[in-house]
Specification:
Helix content is 53%, strand content 12%. By secondary structure, it is of the alpha/beta class. The protein is globular. The structure holds adenosine monophosphate.
Length: 197
Amino acid sequence: MRLILLGPPGAGKGTQAQRLIERHGIPQLSTGDMLREAVAKGTEVGRKAQAIMDAGQLVPDEVVIGIVADRIEEADARKGFILDGFPRTVPQAEALDRLLDAKGLRIDAVLEFQVDEDALVARIEKRAADTLAAGKPVRKDDTPEVFRRRLQEFRQLTAAVVPYYRERGLSHTIGGMAPIDDVTRQIEGALPVEARV
Ligand code: AMP
């Protein structure tokens, strides 16, 4: 099963991805995590991405597409995967279709998280405060100012990915402000029948 989690930052995609991994045994491919790892390792991609990420802007399409193209070739992604944070632009969505087409594969469902932006800002402020309280450093892009910038990037660029998948009949709306277990139930109800556990 190949899924896409689509929604603004802070919508709970990561939490739900974790549950999908446990239930369905397919890996989460988070371009944000892969980019952060590249930054931590100081690779060429990481050096290109760091300043862009810290500013809450989008890393160039070709960089992210390259990372995903390599990652879906790995053995653990053969049975399926959960894409989290990708595609974020229409060219990325088109590139993904081409990558999958070439392998005779397709996306089974796109889970479109719908949220209230003001509540999201409050959620991210809480996440930053909790992280600090736990004595851990807050991600530079999880400060409220940069978070607002990321939301704006989402509205300007990623919102166009929503109609791309709606037109293809793949999109399922998920009420992302519901309690976590409710969101999980909505997601399980949206999966292809043969995939439901
Ligand atoms: P995330 O953890 O998904 O919120 O991603 C953190 C940051 O990584 C984003 O704010 C972007 O700078 C970058 N990033 C992650 N995924 C993508 C993508 N698909 N396209 C462009 N930039 C991305």
